[in-house]
Amino acid sequence: MLVYAGENHAVRKNENMLDYTRRINEFFDHYLLGKPAKPWIRNGVKYIDKMKKESK
Questions:
Q1: What are φ and ψ of residue 39, in 5° steps?
Q2: Residue 42 above 70 pLDDT?
Q3: Structural domain boundaries of the chain?
Q4: Is residue 25 exposed (0-12), middle (13-18) or buried (19+ Cβ within 10 Å)?
Q5: Which helix (DSSP H) or strand (DSSP E) does residue 50 occupy?
Q6: Is 54 helix (H, G, I), strand (E, B) or coil?
Q7: pTM for this one?
Q8: What is the DSSP string of 4-44?
């Protein structure tokens, strides 16, 4: 699940759209093409930690 601060059900901010697109491509590269998983896929980021980082 990808969550962006200040966004609801749709991603509207340009920087979030670019990040979403990059992560979706990395996800499919790993799970469909067998490429190595990126750290965010393997380890994830806790929601509370992400919100703390983005609120700064």
A1: -55, -35
A2: yes
A3: 14-55
A4: exposed
A5: helix 47-55
A6: helix
A7: 0.77
A8: -TT--SS--SHHHHHHHHHHHHHHHHHHHH-PPPPHHHHH-
Query: At 55, is the pLDDT very low, low, confident or very high (cuts 50, 70, 90)?
Result: low
Mean pLDDT of 21-43: 95
Angle at 30 between CA 38 and CA 2, to 5 degrees: 65
Q: 2 — phi, psi (to 5°)?
A: -105, 130
Token output for 48: 């509370």
Check: CB of residue 21 under 8 Å from CB of residue 9: no
Q: What percent of the chain has pLDDT over 70?
A: 93
Q: Which residue has the tokens 């750290």?
A: 39
